[in-house]
Amino acid sequence: MRFPVAITCAVLLCGVGGFGQTTATCDQTLTAPLHARSLLGIESRPAGLEIVGTDEETIRVTCDARNGDNANASRIRLRFSPNATGGKLKIEGEHLRHNHGAQIRIEVPKRTSLMVRMFAGEIKVEQVSGDKDITVGAGQITIDNHNWNYRSVDASVSIGQVNAPMYDANKGGFFRSVSKSTQGGEYRLHAHVTTGQIDLKGKRTEPGSTPKPD
Fold this sequence. Notes:
single chain, mainly beta, 2 domains, 2 helices
């Protein structure tokens, strides 16, 4: 009886160790459950990231290596690991000499908080309502929400430009920033680019007002 029990325990331990982790390469689609109001952490190699809010309670990641080479696409790896607060997505792989940068689309529930870190590249966030903490070394961050409902905003560049028309701000140069607090706002936004540009887009929602439908 001990032998079957030992086998059963080993199988259970292996299952717990890799529970829920989903992996794919750039020529595949990664899909996994992700509940609304989760916190999603993203760590990415240099790339173009498009993070889009949807009505589905899943994370769906598709990737275009930009050069039509399946061998190169398979060298970019996607790994999603769920956790108690949401999950973490890691995008890894070589910086390919003939690859002008993979374009990666990440679909998440509309109400998702984001923490994104990338050394270089471009990050676009569209229609995702939640806290945001996004940092890029060199490149561009664009955040586009139809209703700009933030209680605190801190957007800065060490060298570059910050555009925030909802605050009548257009600043360029060294160590430029936009910092705003709005009583009654719902979310927090922190965005930083060391060298590059930040664009904040959307219609500002005044406290106590009812957001207009698209």
